[in-house]
Amino acid sequence: MDELRFGDFVVVRRHGSVTELVLDRPKAMNAVSTDMARALTAACADLTADPATRVVVLTSTHPKAFCVGADLKERNSFTDQDLLRQRPVTRAAYTAVLDLPVPTLAAVHGFALGGGFEIALSCDLIVADPTAVVGLPEVSVGVIPGGGGTQLLPRRIGAARAAELIFTARRVPAVEAHALGLVDVLAEEGEDREQALALAARIAANSPVGLRAAKRALRLGHGLDLRAGLEVEDAAWRSVAFSGDRAEGVAAFNEKRTPDWPGE
């Protein structure tokens, strides 16, 4: 297993074509400080440029938390100017996760609150165990979700349900979160990471060219009217139709063998 550290708080572990992006600030329950945000952005830039990475799984080293959101202890000493200077740094970190070009999964246990839940929402799929507690409590401390929550949550569960959760700032336990569609897979307790990695491996067995194009079509087409969405889909199809992966996939199907994807 190949491992690379970004700053003090983010670790990248490569498991073949699946890459694990690990939040590693356990003393602060992975609260997102300025330094951690910079490390997350740098790690995502590295993964974006890595052609060997087909799927990314975000995990946590803390036994009772995925990420509790912004580092409010750090912000307690901030002036208004400090907060303004930090804003593009933290925003870049959430955007970096959202913009990863390959399928992404979050493995969630314990608390995933505020910015921590927004990191998970920036992923394509969320796997959670029964200890997970998710929510966007920002209005309870005088701000609003600022890592994409007001836009990502309604896209998952609809505008009215998202409004109720954001306006009440309530925390949602795992079983209810699964029922509402806040998380996609409910794993056995303590198995969120393993199940997310197993699902990632299944995804990674498919064409890397196809996976990237499918993600692009899903992301760009969401929210468009049907005709516009179909144009996005057609452009994505054209980008892969004459690829080496398409030729290999058809050949492998006809020869009844496992594809050896060129990734072109």
UniProtKB/TrEMBL annotation:
Query: Which EC class heads this enzyme's classification?
Result: lyase
What are the BP-aspect GO terms? fatty acid beta-oxidation
Q: What reactions does this protein catalyze? A: a (3S)-3-hydroxyacyl-CoA = a (2E)-enoyl-CoA + H2O; a 4-saturated-(3S)-3-hydroxyacyl-CoA = a (3E)-enoyl-CoA + H2O
* E.C. numbers: 4.2.1.17
State the Gene Ontology terms under molecular function. Answer: enoyl-CoA hydratase activity
Keywords assigned by UniProt, alphabetized: Lipid metabolism, Lyase
At the top level, the lineage of the source is: Bacteria
Q: Which PANTHER family match?
A: (7AS)-7A-METHYL-1,5-DIOXO-2,3,5,6,7,7A-HEXAHYDRO-1H-INDENE-CARBOXYL-COA HYDROLASE (PTHR11941:SF169), ENOYL-COA HYDRATASE-RELATED (PTHR11941)
> Into which family does the record put it?
Belongs to the enoyl-CoA hydratase/isomerase family.
Protein name per UniProt: enoyl-CoA hydratase
